[in-house]
Here is the input.
Amino acid sequence: MTDLVDRQKLSYIAAQAADARLNVELETEGMTLNIGPQHPATHGTLRIIVRLDGEQVIWAEPGAGYMHRGYEKLTEVRTFPQVTALVNRIDWLGSFANEVPFILAAEKLMEVEAPPRAQWIRTILFELSRIANVSLFLGDLGVQLGAITPVFMAFRDREYVLNLIESATGGRFHPNFDRIGGLKEDLPAGWITETKQVMKKLRNFCDEIENLLFGNEIFQSRLRGIGVIPAEVAKQYGLSGANLRASGVDWDLRRDQKIALAYDKVDFKVWTHPDGDSFARCWIRLQETREATKIVDQLLDGIPSGSVMAKVPRIIKVPEGEAWVSTENPLGEMGYYVVSKGDLGPFRVKIRSASFNNISIVPWVLRGVYVPDVISILASLYFILGDIDR
Amino acid sequence: MTSLAIFGADLPYWAQSLLRVLGGAVAVLLPAGTIVYLFLFKMMSFMQSRLGPMEAGPYGSMQLFAEVGKWLQKEDISPTRADKRVFRAAPLVVLMSTFLLVAVVPFGPDAYFTDFDAGVFYMLAVSSISTLGILMAGWSSANKYSLLGGLRAAGQLIAYELPMVLSVIGVVIQAGTMNLQQIVVKQNSDEIFGWNGIGFPYILTQGIGFLIFMIAVQAELTQTPFDMPIAESELVSGYMTEYSGFRFLIFFIAEFATAGVFALIASILFLGGWGVPFSWFGWAPAGSHEIDNWMNVGGPLIMLTKMMVLTGIIMWVRFSYPRFREDQLQRFAWKVLIPVSLVNIMITAVLKVAF
Here is the structure.
């Protein structure tokens, strides 16, 4: 651990030396390179301005906001049930997970609780969207490092999960399925057995990726010891999710907070890694995908019967008050601070999305690294543009 | 093995030249086309659980023509601030290097374009001209990504030229000649300790040299895991970023044609070139040193087979590996490949003197 921190310090010193070289000794000129807004490594329109000395980064600055859609403001002119359709689009790879914390916050204000069956199905769909999200990350990781084959395997196996989500909710990418007080519908017939088979396939996919990518020596030499984030720094920058756990902080909202989801009914391991480098972040995500398939399996076994909708009025008016609910989303902690004045719609919603905080560390972690490592570090930090810009 | 003769009649010099130019074009474009179709479109697709092109022709076999047609129709754009003349010349320089390479490749006992004694030397010299073309493209594009890609290519190709040369020296020592045709004949007519059952393909003694040569070829061709000059996820295709239309097509064709030509050269140096390792095959009276005339037809086919196998390996590695970082690549070249190839040369020289 200390060894890795030393390495980070060394790269700091190297960057400062490069800076000094630029200014005084050789009178060479640095180059400012815009990585993005249109660049394949930024998954969308993130702009990262880097100042280079040769191929070494002297400083880097992320410029977000190219895809700002104003969801926080838009929620103020929507009714509560309509908001889920908006927030679906925040982290578009794991849409269902975006709806849950908002609905939970609204339920907290209304003091209703979804029936057990609805809670279990919510948790299952939550984990399925985690799998759909992170499995694409595992494939995309290969592309960022130059191996083009894994991404096709990821798309192939992610398709099964999307089909499951579609058959349960009607929407592949944007389910809009969660309701205040429960869910829109019950599960279709045969869904449970089908899901179990798919989970088996996904575990195979994880093994495949582990053999093809994580066991590869080039892959390891590209990621190990690169982009080291010590635990204290990670906490200071407000990282969450796998990025934080990869730095050795044992912190998982699924386990740590009492919430109206079925996580306390299942037995799962929270993976951490002591290194805090890019490899650790990728490895944590691989393990979490596996863990998620196991969670889904356990939940499917013990799913209770009953209604999926609590008794709520036809026209939902949320009583006056403020509520904060956050959950452990695929990208990290995602939360909503909902303020209601007793109207049909929220008075103000503050969205805390994981990627926005996760990329705040970019200037710190990119100092002194080389251009190819910029790409691999950004890939391992794993952000979704919609989750940054909202 | 004198001048080119067809149907027993000696052709005038201009006809010979014309035939050779046409032959050269076929020898470059045909392998390039088959490699693109078979390996890039189909093998890659099957490895990635998809079908690949299926619409143009049966099983998409006409896809390459569709691609060429598409690229030829596109506008030939050059950026405003580009160095126009250099920008336009760069793809041609890269393709020229490939054509010059194929000039020394012997396809059969009489089926060759030129046959001269410094063949190996010439081959190693002209193969690095493509670096110049890539550097020209990177520099003249007036694009930061292209510049980074071009400079990476220059650094990488210098680093990998050396192991390539050193790995070939082992073969040259063993054959005692730098003439590629002679190297082929030697491999097919030599004996292993008095036994001439399979000739003497140099991969048996120069296995390490072959491995180093293939790694260096992979780097020379800028294929994954050594594709930092292109690096589509970092540098957005590097030196090729600004190219469109037929100039991009030339880069595209040259990439695969060069892969084919290097595979041909590897098969000449290490796998016995146009011969097959059976003493009775292709020799006028079995076991003699007179080559049958029909090997001029059979030889190119044998060469093509060997080329396909070797390019198959090149592409297979390309599709399954992630790429190195620039400094890791340099370290690998200077700390691993060059020392190993130097040791290989030393051992070869000692054994050559001993036996």
Remarks:
- Strands of chain A lie at 31-35, 47-53, 56-63, 178-179, 182-183, 321-329, 332-340, 348-352.
- The CA atoms of residues 109 and 164 of chain A lie 31 Å apart.
- Chain A touches chain B through 30 residues (CB under 8 Å).
- The domain at 71-358 of chain A is CATH 1.10.645.10 (Cytochrome-c3 Hydrogenase; chain B).
